Amino acid sequence: MAVLSLRPRPAVRRWLPAVVIAAWLACWPLLNGRDTLPLAGSDLTSLHRWINARWDTIDNSRSGNPFFHYFIGAIRTGLDAAVTFAQALISQPSFGRPVPVLGWLGVVAVATAIAFLYANLRMALLTAASFVAFGVLGLWQQSMDTLSITLVAVTCSLAIGIPLGIWAGVSDRFDRVVTPVLDIMQTMPTFVYLAPLTLFFLIGPASATIATMIYAIPPCIRLTSHGIREVSPATLEASTSLGATEWQSLRKVRLPLAKQAMVVGINQTMMAALSMVTIAALIDSPGLGQTVYQTLQKMDIGTAFNGGLALVIMAIMLDRVTSAASRRVERTRRAGRLRSSAYRRWKRPAALTVAAVLCYLSYTYVWAAVFPTLGDTSSYVPRAAAATSAWVQNHLAGFTGALKNLLTYGMLNPFESLLTGTPWWLALVVAVSVAALLVGFRTAAIVAVGLVLLVVLGLWQDSMVTLASTLVATFLVMVLGLFFGVWMGRSDRVDTLLRPLLDAGQTMPAFVYLVPVLGLFGATRFTAIIAAVAYAAPASIKLVAEGIRAVAPAAVEAATSAGSTVGQLIFKVQLPMARRAVTLATSQGLIYVLAMVVVGGMVGAGALGYDVVAGFSQTALRGKGLAAGVSIVVLGLMLDRVMRAVAHRVELAAHGPADRGADGGH
Amino acid sequence: MTEPTLTEPTLRNAESPPVLDVRGLWKVFGPNPGRAVRSTLSSAELKEQTGCVAAVRDVSFAVRPGEVFVVMGLSGSGKSTLVRCLTRLIEPTAGEVLLDGENIGKADARRLRELRRHRLAMVFQNFGLLPHRCVLDNVGYGLEIRGSAKAERYARAREVLELVGLTGFETYYPDQLSGGMQQRVGLARALAVDPEVLLFDEPFSALDPLIRREMQNEVIRLHHEVGKTMVFITHDLSEALKLGDRILIMRDGELVQLGTPDEVVGAPADDYVKDFVSEVPKAQVLTLRWIMRDPRPDEPLDGPELAPDVVIQDAARSVLQADRPIRVVADGKLLGLVTGTEVIETMTSGDQ
Amino acid sequence: MGYIARKRNRPTLIALALGIGLLLSGCSAAKIGSTSTTATGKKCGTFNLAVNGWVGYEADAAVVAYIAHKDLGCTVVKKNLTEEVSWQGFPTGEIDAILENWGHNDLKKKYIDTQKVAVSLGSDGNKGVIGWYVAPWMAQKYPDITNWQNLNKYTSMFKTSESGGKGQLLDGDPSFVTNDAALVKNLKLNFKVVYAGSETALITAFRQSQAKQTPVIGYFYEPQWFLSEVKLVKVNLPAYTTGCDAVTAKVACDYPPYPLDKIAATKFVNSGSPAATLVKNFSWTNDDQNLVASYIAKDKMTDDQAAAKWVAANPDKVKAWLAGT
Description:
The complex is a heterotrimer.
Chain A (H helix, E strand, L loop, with lengths): L10 H21 L14 H15 L5 H25 L13 H15 L2 H16 L3 H31 L1 H16 L2 H12 L3 H26 L2 H9 L4 H34 L8 H11 L2 H38 L2 H24 L1 H4 L10 H42 L2 H15 L2 H16 L3 H31 L1 H16 L2 H12 L3 H26 L2 H9 L4 H12 L1 H17 L1 H5 L5 H11 L4 H34 L11
Chain B lengths: L19 E10 L13 H8 L2 E11 L4 E5 L6 H8 L7 E6 L2 E2 L5 H10 L1 E4 L11 H5 L1 H5 L4 H14 L15 H14 L4 E5 L7 H18 L2 E6 L2 H7 L2 E6 L2 E6 L1 H6 L4 H7 L4 H4 L19 E2 L5 H10 L4 E5 L2 E6 L1 H10 L3
Parallel strand pairs in B: 3-8, 3-9, 6-7, 7-8, 11-12
Antiparallel strand pairs in B: 1-2, 1-4, 4-5, 9-10, 12-13
Chain C lengths: L1 H25 L19 E6 L3 H18 L2 E6 L2 H5 L9 E5 L3 H10 L3 E17 L1 H6 L25 E5 L8 H7 L4 E5 L3 H14 L4 E6 L10 E3 L22 E8 H5 L3 H8 L4 H12 L5 H11 L1 H7 L4
Parallel strand pairs in C: 1-2, 5-6, 5-7
Antiparallel strand pairs in C: 3-9, 4-7, 4-8, 4-9
Helix pairs in contact in C: 2-10, 2-11, 10-11
């Protein structure tokens, strides 16, 4: 029935894509290895050399160039000062004192008071416990450094993101301009812009802050704009009908109603900033990122886990407190006039007073300023983690080796040699014609442009290697996503059990689990794939689970009453009805996997990821590194567009073209 | 609660100039809408040939001061578009809307806001309340945006809330109120700015029948108390008949009939309207005027006397109890006779 | 309304809280500022020290940082950065010194000669060697493997899942100084460079190679503590001649000998910081470095523990480094 609503396609056309692919496979042995555009590790194309030359020109014009001096220099100085100030407050010795202005007790008190006043008592306890945990783990100063730079980056992100988000919410034209830019900002792996950023801002807190902002602003803009746009047109119309100006409607209707979405935006921005601050350790961002990054070099699992744990605690704390605060936005507003006078009368002053007293103590006395060293206690976590990981490596090495070989030889290698062995023009023809036949000409054109760009960038073969790994990783992500997603979606108990693990998986910086994975699988493409899967799977699992949960209970009830088995229920009712969530999970999974390509380059993935990493650390290769970064973005945008088109197509096939006949009666 | 009825004559203020004068109004949606104006094609043809949909086609009418003017039609007939064109929430494609002789279509943004702030207020089907504001702030919103001071607008808002029976709910939020109460807030918000004309866009169709009746009575009561001119959009015929001094029936964007309730029921302009009103218990709408006939030669002319604008149902008892035909008399002049036969015929015709 | 009540209550509360606070602190001791730091001589301030990703360097940094903090009262900030990125810290003062620089003539030209933001502070006493190494058992079993011309004979032995049908040449961190990709290509070796990612990963691979007799050939270097645990054998590449490595992509000769040197930010040197003098004086042997590195990597000491142990055993060297601070 659903298929009928599509224009009937001739059978020939339906089989054509399969024919094209069959022809490709048939041609492959004949053409294998021809025109594959390989580029050896140390070779450069003229484009890469040209970028190198421009890079040097810019770098050498640094002194004496007014643009650098007044514009870049001013931004740099300002951000550095902000970070230094934040550090002076809570993490670094400052103002001639051997300790920061606020010692640990003061910081705990202020943070707890904030959580208490903006969220609730439970969150206040969580906050206090988290901060104490940083100290107990022996990472007080590093944690405070991370917190300082995160707060500065988040403040700047919000200062820029919220106004832009409001603008995008009000103006369709600006929205159309800003959306693709945000797409690029979010598809671009963070590593890619680290090197160009240091060209302008050199290394240090300023660069780290800007890198973090690039990553953290998009969710803020998107959610603010979304909140503004979500305001019901009926409410706005009512406001207009009473003679409100645009500005009055914005200020009195849209902004208040968008407030909650904006707080969610703040939450997302914070999470994004925190994860980026870790990676920014590569360009001299202080804090926990340094701890974790160093352990990657030393393969010191214990310390890596310790640092990672502190980061996860910080992430969970910030997430929970801002989420609770966003719920509270709603209730406070309601309480408004009725707000219990108890709150005003004693809760707020009491919290502030206690915090002030504790701040004074931590300013004055050593015991409240310097977190006590706990000796053995703080090394307990690293030791336990190291022991666990050693046990795993000793006992599972055989199994993990077999798994690695099975997937590498059985799946990754054949697929990779198919892609890399195909002449570039054949790959272009095959990809474009399949896209044209399956999806449409617009998508085919996007694919063509993307592939040609890859050729121009000079990294065709590396791109194909990366593409192979990316697709294999996405496949694994979806296997996990469907399995656990369906399971979670169907069982509340599994959901409660898995969700915290997934949360931790999403907030844990990739560097942390790279270390044990490296131990198990060595520096191989497979390690990179595992890292990517570990990063991408939680999001996909959650999306699939949400999709399954959203299936109308009535449909499930009806199918059950018709005598469906569990299998039939899943495959005939729940999964088909959740297909939108499944396609979304796939495209999100793909983007997340791509985001890890570069990190994979640090642990044996080679190809584009390696090119970017090498370009970042070897002067001679930076042009190539930049080209590799752009190639990753091109791959990402291309795959994303194809996924969206396919999803759209799937929707169409299921529902028929959306009927948007204008309703004359309003 | 006894139902108040409109007792004033239907042709109230017939001679005074109209508050709202609508002339040749068009609203066309689609590409190059101007092209479709004054087209005589049917809507299907129009859609086919120009890709446009004419939601309002050449509608003209005049609303008199203090009148309750009902626009009625099925969904998709263009009535909601029509009422939005009156205050330019939707920009009309062609035609004029005159408010006290001032062409609203010519007003610039500032003047239009002035008109909306002071002279026209609207009540919406989905209430259009501001969910983040309590009842008092919702009611005061119109005053707030025109810049009145806090104390002043709260005083006025309380006054209006009392008028709609919501005293005591000032600090509630819209989602804490029932649908009926929410619409009272919507009504209060519109009344708060003391407009000349109140526009109602299907205000009660989202409410359940019991509440709807209560709210209709509320409107009638308010109309008595504040005497505002009202333009009332509905798809419910009984509501139209109950509230309207005059009813404009729309179909596919066009005016089909414009008349008093008894004209619409008693003399439907075409089959469409006829079909519409076929279910109406005519006895409750039509007056004796509609069933009186000339006396037959043998009939006695000394029966009880009744006025021609007495509704049949109200007259039924007297007619049926009388042993002689009732004389319908206006200004001492005999207009005709009514007997039980005519009354029973009318009262049963609604059930066919 | 609630206002008046609040006003009345607040001072009481504040007094109460303050009272508790004073009670808490009254009996306790040290106030900040009353305990003086152990700084002696000139005021040092903050000393930003780059730490690159191998244990040998970490040993340098450990000892210098330990002395700078303990004897000079500096606040030492160690920054874990890759080699070339560290140089970018000189113009802004993010980095004050690099203790073990491997060549990087292009960077020297740019930062020292052109931009004049850095200066060389001379040799740190270590002699660097880079090359390709195999485990001792391999050199015994296949004596001719130490000549590069025979490497293609053994390609199949070095195949792995990552080497795509060729032999695998294991490299370290992608940021390390390396010509290996060019060498493989220009010497027409049927090998593929695969990056282990870090020094530790290289060490693990070589250690396993020796223990399990699995074939591994890879990039390695001296000074290196691990060579005292497993005496790896260097493979002979075509001999280095001056200028044979001028164009990176065309290199077909062995790595040059690297006299490792110290680089410091011009501003830092001119500031008169005692730490700058310490860096300038710092110089030790490969054995010294290997010893401290093995404390850290093998004996799992912290940097400070390792440095303290070495400093205690070598007071004369330390004293010489502190001359003039």
